[in-house]
Amino acid sequence: MRWKRYWQWGLLLLGLVVVVATRYNAPLYQQPLIQVTATQTLHQTTTQDEFHNRDRQSTQQVSGRLLNGSRRGQTVQARNTYTASSALDQRYRKGQQVFVSLTNHGVQLKDLKRDTVVLGLLYLVVAVVLLLLRWPGLLALVSVVANFALFFCAIELDLMWHSTGFLTLFGVLALLFTGITLRLVLGRTRQMLVVFLATVSGTGLAMGLSALTLALTQHQGLYFESVAYVTQVAPQPLFLAATLLGSLGAVMDQATDIVAALFTLKTDQPTISAAALFQAGRQVGRTIMGPLINVLLLIFVAEAFPLAVLLLRNGNSWGYTFDMTMSLGLAQSLISGIGIVLTVPLTSFFASRLFVRQPKH
Amino acid sequence: MNTLLVLSGLLLFVMVLVGGRQGAAAFLSLWLNFGCLFLAILLVALQFSPLLVALVLGILMLALIIFVGQDDLLVTQTAFFAAVLVLVVLLVLMVPVEYWAAVQGFGLEDSDTLEGLSLLVGIDFVKVSIATAVLSTLGAIAEAAMAVAAGLSALLRQHPAISTRRLFHAGLTTGQRIIGTTFNTLFFGFFGGFLGLFIWFVNLQYTLGELLNNKVLIAEVLLVLFALLGVVLTVPLTALVMAKRVGYQRKKAA
């Protein structure tokens, strides 16, 4: 017990060391880095664009010490132009570490070094999970990491195959995700089998129905040209794969909660009939499905916030802004919602079949 | 026919079929939440303070998710109070982190989308990024708070005389049970949206160093981390609110 506690504190300390070390890891980077030692505002102008938006543009002189490369230790000067709204630029402050490019013409500021802040927050999350939720919390994190690794492998595979069979690949990936996640959360039990069957059939049914709807309505009102970061995969399959993966976790969540409740019920009342179990499952499911769909809605649609604000300030109508930033996210939420709702009767059905032993004839 | 209309008609149909009156209420809450989100964007575009808009509409949205269609007042009131508490704690953390990370607005990968748009619109995009973080975590906080409060309410029905101390610890145990699946909801929910971005990164062979400092990626990762942290904090805070509330009621009754 005591050893276990030391182990935990050791882990926490090690993490802290790693986070602090990122302030001093500049030699690991190929790209030159500086630490800002002084800044000075040179001039400021007030700007007005064609939509009468007022903004303030400033130019600052940034002095910094080079942290890596052959000129390490030298002090260099650079200019930075930034705006008050900072949509694509930023003001630099003393103490910040910044990527730069060194050319014959001088020094150009590229981008802020962000590894310390992201690892710091990651560390905080892991520490809080460990301290509050102990082992089950750690297991939950492990399943997230495992899924992430799998996700990356799938993308590598997709690029190797030049995106032929893109949807098939991600369909198979979804099956693997479901299997691995449930194995880690539930173990190899009858409950896992029920959740697996319900998740696969619920998601599959929802995706099928949605693909059918999209085809029949000729995806009117969905603007696939607004899909961001399109490279070699066509926007529509990309959208469908994103929807499939996006809804998977919530559907599993829904099915797991129902199964856990029904398993407890069955243990308490071993003689309960299949029909009663089915009804109980529906009862549990209908209270969870609402909040769960809202979780996804907010994740899918809130991301549109900055672009939507920008479009509105650029004199676009509400309708156009909605079409370009929110229509796809909303469609994803609706499709996921259908999957989550369909999972309720499906889980209850599979549970009532598999938990209640059939009378022998 | 408009695809969104057909999809939402389909969703309403299955929701009522499966959930009856509660299903219809859930459908209503979904659209009200979307309305609030749209309103938040409009208000910020009209130059209201993004932080104030996120806080006020965020609390309204928590209420919509938690109260609409649910009957047990002990569960909903406890969950709502705890969720608001978590929101405030998170906001205190989000403000310095978003300023520190400077991941506001857009990155170089967004160049295509931004073509022809004026970026000098006079709205502080760091504040917009904080508002985005607040709004995208709300659902997860509400859901976790409801789950813990519902679990404790069921426990109170079975053991009405349970001590507040044991009630609090039972809350943590409930949290341990739900955390695995909630993490997965968040993981898949966010990563489904990043699919295009990840293909982009792998395709253009970004190095680990580039990824760890990339503005667009770090912006998304921070959203996920805030959401995870929100859920984890919700567990003890909901248990605490429930224990305090039951303790207070008992004192009043005695």
Automatic annotation (TrEMBL), chain A:
A Pfam family assignment: YibE_F
Protein's UniProt keywords contain Membrane: yes
Keywords: Membrane, Transmembrane, Transmembrane helix
Keyword Cell wall biogenesis/degradation: no
Annotated coiled-coil segments of the chain: none
Transmembrane segments: 6-26, 116-133, 139-159, 166-186, 192-216, 292-313, 333-356
PANTHER family: MEMBRANE PROTEIN, MEMBRANE PROTEIN-RELATED
Entry protein name: Multitransmembrane protein
TrEMBL record, chain B:
TM region positions: 39-68, 80-102, 130-156, 177-201, 221-243
InterPro entries named among the record's database cross-references: UCP031503_TM, YibE_F
Entry keywords, A to Z: Membrane, Transmembrane, Transmembrane helix
Stored PANTHER family: MEMBRANE PROTEIN, MEMBRANE PROTEIN-RELATED
Protein name as annotated: Multitransmembrane protein
